[in-house]
Amino acid sequence: MSSNKRIKGLSISRPIYYGNTATPLTGKKTSDSDHTHKWTVLLRGLNNEDLSYYIRKVVFKLHETYPNPLRSVEQPPFELTETGWGEFEIMIKIHFHVATSEKPVTLYHHLRLHPYEDDINGQPWPKDKPVSSLIYDEFVFNEPTEQFRDILAKNNALQPNLPAKKATKDPLAPQFSVQLEQEELERLDAAQREVNAQIISLKQRMAALDSDN
Ligand code: SLL
After folding, report:
1. Is the minimum distance from the CB of 63 to ligand 1 under 6 angstroms?
2. Which residue has the higher pLDDT, 161 or 85?
3. pLDDT at 88 (0 to 100)
4. Which of 104, 111, 118, 148 is the most core-located residue (most Cβ within 10 A)?
5. pLDDT (0 to 100) of residue 160
6. Probe residue for ligand 1, chosen from 82, 85, 110 as the CB with the greatest number of ligand atoms within 8 Å
7. Domain ranges of the chain
8. Does the pTM exceed 0.85?
């Protein structure tokens, strides 16, 4: 019989992703509404893992311009679809099953409706193309109780279910992989180098201007 005793030294992580997708309502707009987009905010397990064996409910806190801004989702999929006109920060509070003895976890997500960038081929973002902003993360359960460890074991969740090494071919599946993470790091590195080069060049121009005076 498993108990509420915590297992010293054990740490278990479960991968998730959260965020939103959004599509413009162009042409489908109703005349009495100023809503411009339909969006879905979601919390999912990686590789289609159904999270409901350890998550009891997810509460999404919307902007106060929405009626009943606290929306509780008590069944998977843990997601919520709405329409609206503006971006704002959504609070996502995750409640675990009582049997896990884990405290709720709160995440924040900036609802993104607009692309702000060209598409991956450098072309302007097509007007009707959905936008998505999804973030990979992991819950880390430090010193879980024996009871929670048993729940995880029963659901084959003691092994890390990590992102694939390579991106999947399905264009609609969220793309998290070690390879993409590496590419992102390289982009950040290149951006940092560019900023450093610009700082040096501006300093040189300032020094040149100073010596002219
Ligand atoms: C902004 N600070 O000004 C943000 C607030 C709020 C968006 C965005 C409400 C929809 C409804 C809605 O879209 N709120 O009226 O039901 O951009």
Report:
1. yes
2. 85
3. 98
4. 148
5. 66
6. 85
7. 11-162, 177-213
8. no
Query: How many Å apart are CA 13 and CA 67, to the nearest integer?
Result: 35
CB 87 less than 6 A from any atom of ligand 1: yes
CA 38 to ligand 1 centroid distance, Å:
12
d(CA 142, CA 65): 38
Ligand 1 binding pocket includes 201 (Cβ within 6 Å) = no
Strands, E, within 65-176: which ranges? Answer: 70-73, 78-84, 89-96, 105-110, 131-142
Confirm or reject: Cβ of 86 under 6 Å from ligand 1. yes
Closest Cα to atom 12, ligand 1: which residue?
84
Candidates 45, 4, 2; CA nearest to 136 is 45
Q: What is the C-alpha separation between 37 and 130, in angstroms, rounded?
A: 10
Spell out the alpha helix ranges (H) of 38-141.
none
Yes or no: is domain 11-162 CATH 3.40.50.360?
no
52: CA distance to ligand 1 center in Å?
30
Chain-centroid distance, C-alpha 48:
15
The residue nearest atom 16 of ligand 1, judged by CA position, is 66
Name every residue whose Cβ is closer than 8 Å to that of residue 73 and which is 6 or more positions away in sequence. Answer: 57, 58, 59, 60, 79, 80
Residue whose entry in the numeric block shows the structure tokens 């359960």: 141
Query: How many A from CA of 175 to the centre of ligand 1?
Result: 29
- Are 90 and 1 in contact by the 8 Å Cβ rule? The answer is no
Query: What distance in Å separates the CA atoms of residue 107 and residue 95, rounded to the nearest whole number?
Result: 12
Q: What is the DSSP letter of 155?
A: T
